Amino acid sequence: MKMKGYKSIVLWILACMFVMPAMSQVGEPRNNWSIGVNGGMNMSKVSFEPSIKQKSKNGMAMGLTVRYMSEKYFKMMCGIQAEVNYVQRGWNENIEDGTENTYERTMNYVEIPLLAHLSFGKDALDKGVKFFVNAGPQFSFFLSESEDMSENWDTSYRPNGIVQQYGKMVENKFDYGILGGAGLELSTGVGHFLLEGRYYYGLADFWGSSKKDEFGRSGHSYMGIRLTYLFDITK
Fold it and tell me: pTM here?
């Protein structure tokens, strides 16, 4: 898919986020602001071209969450959720060259997801369990990175001959892509507890991807799990 297609997808999701609440004005209005914290883990990989064999790299994620619930439309609650998160991404290579070499890259980012939030079942202020989905664009800013390799490091026997990634630092510090998730929310007298599974697909490359560059693709993706606690500041 060309970069123009990527941008079209992001614009379409942004349009859905803000047009959908406007279309649901026939529903019952709400004005429920909540704020809280989230934490969890990412299982990351990187899409490389040419490809590099990998295992999932586990990294932490934590941050702040703000949610605004604006409408109830039949059994669906409509809202918008924004976050500011510190996360670890990267990749863990699956080296199969007969040696005991290991290699792992840790990449630290600040992520800002802007998500349409839809929940089904209980009202936003009612106690109990409800199902929800999140979807929207995510923008990220690179902070730092580190390489971790075995002491007996030797690239002489790589079967595919791809070694340009070693020591190659991030060139493009701005990342963007599409984030989607689903989970369960438990609302109680002391706040809301959300357990969510997520998937992120990056549309940008962190290395140059022109014909003169070593890699035509270097984009992040991850599956993650988040536990979020929110408390209401308006009802």
Answer: 0.87
Query: Contact, 68 vs 80, CB < 8 A?
Result: yes
Please state, in angstroms and as integers, the Cα–Cα distance from residue 216 to each residue in 33, 95, 100, following that order. 43, 21, 28
Residue 92's nearest CA partner among 42, 140, 49 is 42
CB 110 within 8 A of CB 144: no
* Closest of 8, 233, 230, 234 to residue 119, by C-alpha: 230
211: left (phi over 0), alpha (psi -120 to 50) or beta: alpha
- Tens of pLDDT along 111-157? 999 999 999 987 666 788 999 999 999 999 999 999 999 998 999 88
pLDDT per residue over 83-113, tens digit each? 999 999 999 999 988 889 999 999 999 999 9
